[in-house]
Amino acid sequence: MKYYIIAGEASGDLHGSNLIKALKNKDSKAIVRCWGGDLMQAAGGILVKHYREMAFMGFLEVLLNLSTIYKSIKFCKNDIAQFNPDVIIFIDYSGFNLRIAKWAKQQNYRTNYYISPQIWASREGRINGIKRDIDAMYVILPFEKEFYEKKHGFPVNFVGHPLIDAIGDRKKVDEKKFRIENNLDKGNRIVALLPGSRKQEVQKMLRIMLSVSNEFPEYYFVIGGAPSLDEEFYKPFLKNANIGFVANKTYDLLNVSHAALVTSGTATLETALFNVPQVVCYKANWLSYQIAKRIITLKYISLVNLIMDKEVVKELIQNDLNTKNLKKELIEILDGKGRENQLKAYDLLRKKLGGKGASEKVAIQIAENS
Fold first, then answer.
1. Which of 13, 227, 262, 327 is deepest in the core (most CB within 10 A)?
2. CA 331 to CA 69: how far, in whole Å?
3. How far apart are the first and last CA of the chain?
């Protein structure tokens, strides 16, 4: 069978790569053409466009790049038509994917969505388009099944979270070797800094995250570089003696970290699954934040808190994200009561996420129903 997969971010590239592997195990004749990244290409996908070319953050940035986005949409439609797949699989990235899904359904392509658009967070009215344009939906968060089925009468498949496999199957890192190989061979305990994957957010987040580094000279603050950004981009941030950097090794970094400062997103859940206490950080430009505040209806922004339906990890958002507050919360998770509370909550979090095998479950159902 011929599969066309569209992912637009680093997390989608990871989950897409595991799905491609599972599809090829299930279907020995599978041909996969994809939008994604290096991981999907390494898994055997024919890469059409890299997510680096589509990484726009916030409402203002999207508006400024509308011309590029529309060209990509047109190119994508033409590429799908030429490839003529048996099924199209959308992975998250809703702004782009739901537009393609509407067109694809009109062309009578079979449409599957893996990792639901977060319509439970904002613009819930998109459910009407999903019902019209998506043949099968595979959700990875436990509360999403109830949201779709009980609230909107749209049947979905809860397959568990793919991060359970991605993280659980990894070998434990030899910390001494990791430190030496990455020039981090100081004895200080590590605080991981995960500032995101887009230039705009990384610049904004790192300035604030690093503002507390001088307050904790006994710790080593290590920036986790995103695969979407060149190492050269991070050099201006590496000025202090207790600041280090590793490129494209986020999981290895978390494996040896004592605590973390994390930009909201999938990384908050990844950090929890590595059992690393964290402070969640988020700051957008003023206009993007004002728009988001009016359309997002959630109590929390981190996946950890959303899944647990309570504040497990501290969220510092917009004006609350400053040096004073960040220092206070970091002290709590380094050695305070907050550290113990987070680690206990992480155990319950894992149970809620379901078992292993998300990619395999999706691959089996897509291959059998297409």
1. 262
2. 42
3. 9
281 pairs with which residues across the strands?
263, 316
CA–CA separation, 286 and 335 (whole Å): 34
Consecutive H or E run containing 115: none
Dist. CA 112–CA 50, nearest whole Å: 21
Domains for the chain: give ranges and CATH numbers.
Answer: 2-161+356-369 (3.40.50.2000), 168-352 (3.40.50.2000)
pLDDT tens per residue across all 370 residues of the chain: 999 999 998 889 999 999 999 999 999 999 999 999 999 999 999 999 999 887 655 555 556 667 778 899 999 999 999 999 999 999 999 989 999 999 999 999 999 999 999 899 888 999 999 999 999 999 999 999 999 999 999 999 999 999 998 898 788 899 999 999 998 877 799 999 999 988 888 998 999 999 999 999 999 999 999 988 999 999 999 988 899 999 999 999 999 999 999 998 889 999 999 999 999 999 876 556 565 555 566 788 899 999 999 999 999 998 999 999 999 999 999 998 999 999 999 999 998 998 789 999 999 999 888 6
Report phi then psi at 61, rounded to 5. Answer: -65, -40
Cβ–Cβ contacts within 10 Å for residue 311, how many?
A: 14
Question: For residue 21, which amino acid is it?
Answer: K
H helices, E strands: number in the chain: 19, 13
Q: Cα angle at 10 between 6 and 11, to 5 degrees?
A: 85
SS3 state at 34: strand
CB 118 within 8 A of CB 147: no
**Residues 6+ away with beta carbon under 8 Å from 88:** 3, 4, 5, 6, 80, 100, 101, 104, 109, 110, 111, 112
d(CA 326, CA 340): 18
Q: Please state, in angstroms and rounded to a whole number, the distance separating the CA atoms of residues 114 and 110.
A: 13
